[in-house]
């Protein structure tokens, strides 16, 4: 019998739960789970993320240089298939989402080549979505 792959759980601050529901639930397509007047669970590609109402904790503050771009240090996201990644990039563009780092291919022609994009949720939390043509490159060094 195989052991199931562990799931991750991430709790993060938001300034408004209605905004979080619109962004994560409607725009990103993450089904909503349990909720209260202080938090909302979302199914984030099979993992549990929880938006907690904490306006004073929102946003990212620091950057780190990666492949010529200033990457927000505190961020989260998902690794998608290339088709899902392109579909999401198109959906975000159509919705007028401003990118912190426009969709592009990072480390082109090198180990770890990946499509990536960074953007902010309405509370200023940074998200990165990436895709690999060769998923064996996810942890390659």
From TrEMBL:
The lineage of its organism: Bacteria, Pseudomonadati, Pseudomonadota, Betaproteobacteria, Burkholderiales. It comes from the Bacteria. Residues 6-132 form the VOC domain. Pfam families: Glyoxalase. Gene3D superfamilies: 2,3-Dihydroxybiphenyl 1,2-Dioxygenase, domain 1 (3.10.180.10). It comes from Aquincola tertiaricarbonis. This is VOC family protein.
């Amino acid at each position: 019998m195989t052991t199931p792959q562990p799931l991750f759980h991430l709790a993060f601050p938001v300034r408004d739960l209605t905004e979080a529901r619109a962004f994560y639930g409607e725009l990103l397509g993450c089904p909503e789970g349990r909720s209260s007047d202080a938090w909302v669970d979302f199914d984030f590609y099979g993992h549990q993320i929880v938006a907690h109402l904490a306006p004073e904790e929102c946003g990212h503050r620091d950057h780190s240089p990666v492949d010529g771009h200033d990457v927000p240090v505190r961020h989260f996201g998902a690794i998608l298939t290339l088709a899902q990644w392109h579909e999401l990039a198109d959906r975000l563009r159509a919705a007028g989402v401003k990118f912190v780092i426009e969709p592009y291919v990072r480390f082109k022609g090198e180990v770890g080549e990946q499509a990536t994009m960074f953007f902010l949720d309405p509370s200023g939390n940074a998200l990165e979505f990436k895709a690999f043509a060769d998923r064996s490159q996810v942890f390659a060094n």
